[in-house]
């Protein structure tokens, strides 16, 4: 059987398009990113109200996946308007100069059924570091649910300058938790 050039090119194009999955659309109403820490040894969970996530994930090819997260640092909600204004100031996030915190993956590896190891660059307040953390992924309502936790040290990113460098009031350890629901 001889194929003419037109059908052959169409078949190759169809295979190429099927192999490169479209980026997933994030359902921000059902997604959340929180900062979890201790203040005066009392656990605090604060929610970032504004963020975007660009995820490209095919469960059949996790090594080809990518993730880019952008968080509006002034959107951190501690449950009190005065505290929310305080953490946007220069000593904390300095949101006027550094309005976004970002994470961009450089490698995503399968680590078993529904488990991933994610590596990438985390940038907060102008400071960048390569981080690696575990994540889980599972189907939920026709979409993919990504969940995980990334422990960081806030002082490594100059979050809490001046008098706030003293960790007796606000602990240095912060865990960034995420729950991102995304689909086609």
TrEMBL record:
- Give the InterPro entries listed for this entry: Lipid/polyisoprenoid-bd_YceI, TTHA0802/YceI-like_sf
Task: Outline the extent of the Lipid/polyisoprenoid-binding YceI-like domain.
Answer: 23-183
Where does the secretion signal sit in this chain? 1-21
Keyword field: Signal
* Highest taxon of source: Bacteria
- Please report a single Pfam family linked to this protein: YceI
The record's listing under SMART domains reads: YceI
Q: Does the keyword Signal apply?
A: yes
The protein depicted here goes by the name: YceI family protein
């Amino acid at each position: 059987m001889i194929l003419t050039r037109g059908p052959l090119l169409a078949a190759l194009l169809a295979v190429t398009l099927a192999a490169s999955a479209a980026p997933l659309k994030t359902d921000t109403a059902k997604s959340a990113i929180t900062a979890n820490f201790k203040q005066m040894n009392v656990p605090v969970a604060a929610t970032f109200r504004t963020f975007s996530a660009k995820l490209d994930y095919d469960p059949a090819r996790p090594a080809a996946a990518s993730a880019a997260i952008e968080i509006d640092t002034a959107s951190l909600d501690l449950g009190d308007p005065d505290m929310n204004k305080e953490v946007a100031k220069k000593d904390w996030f300095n949101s006027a100069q550094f309005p976004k915190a970002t994470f961009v993956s450089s490698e995503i590896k399968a680590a078993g059924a529904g488990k991933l190891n994610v590596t990438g660059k985390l940038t907060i307040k102008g400071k960048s570091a390569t981080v690696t953390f575990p994540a889980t992924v599972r189907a939920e309502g026709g979409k993919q649910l990504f969940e995980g936790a990334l422990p960081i040290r806030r002082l490594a990113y100059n979050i809490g300058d001046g008098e706030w460098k003293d960790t007796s009031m606000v602990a240095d350890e912060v865990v960034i938790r995420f729950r991102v629901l995304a689909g086609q």
